[in-house]
């Protein structure tokens, strides 16, 4: 089968879905690998390195897309390029953001494209090595903490010297999933005093094992979905949470919010009134800003100041460490491909009865086949 790796064309995106080491693995399994010229230039990987590993470097993007059978990228291909793939039963693999773009899904169906969404891989042990949401979220947790620390007009660790003593900074992390746990670990390594909260109480132990304190809030029944994601809180529970965490927020130098609800808008957890309680010069990072925000008034992609508090709404955090992010993503993809690769046919085996593909194939043979999306459309 012929794989193609086009350049990412979203402004500012530096990551890519393939490194030279992956080319070798794909070639060994019997695939042909085409890459768009300049694929790795943002992370200092040259076309020559891809060629030396066995890839064919192609300059004409349309030629690359039309000659491949499987197209692999970080972000989904732009809508206007889908018609180039018309009627040739191609497979697209990338982050697809399937819940938020119905017209894109229609275009995939119309052009008979098999689309695979990396964010829909099941969060089961077998898929850990393919879990691109987790690899990118861990890097995000690290980068957000570093960014917040760099904005703070003080340091994170306690400093006791003959010339003076400083108390450790206080960091509060809301949402202790993959990104939140990495934010906690990073802030601890930098010497901060860290507290965290998550509606999934099972997380308390994980927070404590990283040296953080878990803020206890009695919300009554919360729970998880069958895929292990947090369930949405009721309006009453949300208000209890907002009030119970206000003091901790007011005392914190840095607040990092990472709360998400799978397939839904993230909850708004910090009001402007609570921001006003924080010390001027404090920093909030709203990881959810791009999808609606955990923080009232945060602006996607921007840094704003509210009551003297810097509110960072930038997103795509792993892109700041694009080299590591590309390596992790490219390896996740490679493990995924090898999981669904048929050695005899030297091609992907799109068998929708399996646990993995039944979860992450979105469109196939002109139809939406994802049970989760179909159930949401009802
Ligand atoms: P996510 O990005 O969907 O959400 C981030 C966190 O926000 C979650 O921990 C969630 O509980 C929390 N949250 C939601 N509402 C909140 C609120 N009101 N207040 C505070 N926190 C709130 O989560 P994720 O990091 O992608 O992880 C999702 C699940 O998948 C978790 O259970 C995680 O442990 C699990 N997981 C499993 C594997 C595996 O291979 N077994 C791998 C990665 C993640």
Automatic annotation (TrEMBL):
Domain named Alanine dehydrogenase/pyridine nucleotide transhydrogenase NAD(H)-binding: residues: 149-313
EC number(s) stated in the UniProt entry for this protein: 7.1.1.1
Domain Alanine dehydrogenase/pyridine nucleotide transhydrogenase N-terminal: 4-140
SUPFAM superfamilies per record: Formate/glycerate dehydrogenase catalytic domain-like, NAD(P)-binding Rossmann-fold domains
Keyword Ribonucleoprotein: no
Domain of life: Bacteria
Catalytic function, reaction form: NAD(+) + NADPH + H(+)(in) = NADH + NADP(+) + H(+)(out)
Pfam annotation, one family: AlaDh_PNT_N
Keywords: NAD, NADP, Nucleotide-binding, Translocase
Enzyme class: translocase
Family listed: Belongs to the AlaDH/PNT family.
Function: The transhydrogenation between NADH and NADP is coupled to respiration and ATP hydrolysis and functions as a proton pump across the membrane.
Full protein name: proton-translocating NAD(P)(+) transhydrogenase
């Amino acid at each position: 089968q012929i794989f193609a790796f086009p350049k990412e064309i979203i402004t500012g995106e530096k990551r890519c879905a393939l490194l030279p080491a992956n080319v070798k693995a794909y070639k060994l399994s019997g695939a042909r690998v085409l890459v768009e010229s300049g694929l790795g230039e943002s992370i200092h990987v040259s076309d020559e390195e891809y060629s030396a590993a066995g890839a064919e470097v192609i300059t004409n993007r349309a030629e690359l897309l039309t000659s491949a059978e499987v197209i692999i990228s970080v972000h989904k291909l732009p809508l206007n390029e889908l018609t180039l793939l018309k009627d040739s039963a191609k497979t697209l693999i990338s982050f697809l953001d399937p819940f938020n773009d119905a017209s894109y899904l229609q275009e995939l169906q119309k052009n008979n494209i098999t689309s695979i969404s990396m964010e829909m891989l099941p969060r089961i042990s077998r898929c850990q090595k393919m879990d691109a949401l987790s690899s990118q979220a861990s890097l995000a947790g690290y980068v957000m903490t570093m960014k917040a620390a760099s904005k703070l007009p003080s340091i994170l660790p306690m400093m006791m010297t003959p010339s003076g003593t400083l108390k450790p900074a206080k960091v509060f992390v809301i949402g202790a999933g993959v990104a939140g746990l990495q934010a906690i670990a990073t802030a601890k390594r930098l010497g901060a005093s860290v507290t965290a909260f998550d509606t999934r109480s099972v997380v308390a132990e994980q927070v404590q094992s990283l040296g953080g304190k878990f803020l206890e809030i009695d919300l009554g029944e919360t729970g998880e979905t069958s895929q292990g994601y947090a369930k949405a809180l009721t309006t009453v529970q949300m208000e209890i949470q907002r009030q119970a965490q206000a003091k901790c927020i007011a005392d914190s130098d840095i607040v990092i919010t990472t709360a998400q609800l799978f397939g839904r808008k993230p909850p708004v957890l910090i009001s402007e009134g609570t921001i006003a309680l924080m010390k001027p010069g404090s920093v909030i990072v709203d990881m959810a800003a791009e999808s609606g925000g955990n923080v009232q008034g945060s602006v996607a992609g921007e840094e704003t100041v509210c009551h003297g508090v810097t509110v960072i709404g930038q997103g795509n955090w792993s892109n700041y460490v694009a080299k590591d992010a590309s390596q992790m993503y490219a390896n996740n993809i490679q493990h995924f491909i090898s999981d669904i690769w048929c050695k005899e046919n030297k091609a992907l085996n799109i068998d929708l009865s399996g646990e993995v593909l039944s979860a992450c194939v979105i469109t196939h043979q002109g139809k939406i086949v994802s049970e989760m999306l179909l159930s949401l459309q009802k």
